[in-house]
Amino acid sequence: MEQGHLAPAIFLIILSLQNKKNPQKSSRYIINYKNYGFFWEKSVTFASEKVQAYSAGNISLKRRAQGLPPWDSSGHSFPFFSQDKRRIVMYLRLNHNEEVHTNANALPIKAFPHIMSILLHLHHHHYRLCGITRDLLPDNTLLFVSEETAADTQEVEFTFEFHFVEQLPTLPSDPKHSKAPKDSYTPVYSRHNICIWQNGALQRRQISVNSPSDAYAVYEETSATHADIWFLEGLRQELRIDTVFISTLSLERHLAPHGIFIFHCAYMLHHNRAILLSGPSGAGKSTHAELWHRHVEGTRIINGDRGLICREPDGSFVVDGWPVCGSSGICHNEAHPLGAIVFIEQTPDNQVIAENLPQHYRRVFAQLTVNHWDVAATAEAADWIMSLCTTIPIVTYGCNIAPDAPYPLLDYLNTKFISVGK
């Protein structure tokens, strides 16, 4: 058993009793490796002895059903009996290198750092990651996560529970893997790298590289607040690739109802305002962002490839960070007021290109992550885009790559819209 799999886990110490009449005697201790998802466990034994614990209806189980941890804010856990009343299960919070000796018959157990679970934070919204450890998360994602504490549990909106398996579920609600309701799923969308099924309000996705035959993950919602993510064990280390990891979470589905959309752009900050340089791949937005960074005082690049555009309750827009940045390598977790959106085109001379609202609307729609196959979601996105286009200055700018290319745009924005240089 590799320590790497145990180190960041929550441990179940299961006391196996030899005799119900003499509960103080124990044959030996057994560690079950189990993450905060609580619905999946992998039994690990000493001396070739294997035990599977089943919890009875008690306070620990009820807390789990409510999405609460099986311990209180002081770290005291709630013990429970297995159904056959022959085992006691206790959650223990252990410190690094602490050895536990409870009686003469117990095996010494080397404990490892405790992690309750991981929270992913995206613009005031919090998502729980279970069954996965920090060492598997991409470096950019680590900028957006924290360890969950007891005080955080009430703020979590959705739980993603990872399962590493040798073979992915082959059909929706495969009984060998799935805990989702066994009603029929309806195929609703398919392309080379994703297949989607719908079961009422619940959704299931198979995620691939180029075709269904090379699928590496299955995402399946089991309730309005929980989804299982089945990931191939042999590709476990590939989760450190940010696009692979983010693809498993279907986050655009969870963010859109909050008025938050992923936007393809170079996200710059200039004098405390966000300027988003957008356009299709190859348009030159990253190059132009670098020109601003080098030659225009007071400019930083927050993300070289993506930004989260967020509509606030008062109708204003801010841009927040996103844990994927393409090949730019530039990723920061920062939120700033949105000053302007600029669509970049390559032209011999530097010039603002006159365009109208419908043209701006189409350009925004093309660079926004929207589930186009979902009619209701697309309609909501359309209303959101119209609100954005009528609230935020949008400009189309033709430019070359000369060092002075940013200045005509900067002068135009200062004159017409937002005084970004002050």
Outline:
The chain is α+β, with helices and mostly antiparallel strands. 18% of the residues lie in helices and 33% in strands. The chain is built from 9 helices and 24 strands.
Can you walk me through this structure?
This protein is an alpha+beta fold and 422 residues long. It is 18% helix and 33% strand. The protein is built from nine helices and 24 strands. The strands form four sheets. Strands 10-8-9-11-16-15-14-13-12 form a nine-stranded mixed β-sheet, with no helix packed on it. It has a five-stranded antiparallel β-sheet with strand order 3-2-1-5-4. Strand 6 and strand 7 form a beta hairpin. Helix 7 crosses helix 8 (375-389). The longest helix has 15 residues, at 375-389. The model is unreliable at 1-61 and 69-116 (pLDDT under 50).
Spatial gap, N to C terminus: 60 Å
The dominant shape is globular
Largest sheet: 9 strands, mixed
Q: Level of helix content?
A: 10-25%
Low-confidence stretches: 1-61, 69-116
* Mean of pLDDT: 76
Q: Given the structure, what is the number of helices?
A: 9
Q: How are the SSEs placed, and which strands pair?
A:
Elements (H helix, E strand, L loop, with lengths): L2 H4 L3 E8 L8 E9 L7 E3 L14 H7 L14 E2 L5 E6 L6 E2 L8 E2 L7 E5 L2 E6 L8 H4 L2 E3 L8 E10 L20 E6 L2 E6 L2 E6 L9 E7 L2 E7 L9 H6 L3 H5 L4 E11 L2 E6 L6 H11 L3 E5 L2 E6 L5 E4 L15 E11 L4 E3 L3 H11 L7 H15 L4 E6 L6 H11 L6
Parallel strand pairs: 9-11, 11-16, 18-22, 22-24
Antiparallel strand pairs: 1-2, 1-5, 2-3, 4-5, 6-7, 8-9, 8-10, 12-13, 13-14, 14-15, 15-16, 17-18, 17-19, 17-20, 20-21, 21-22, 23-24
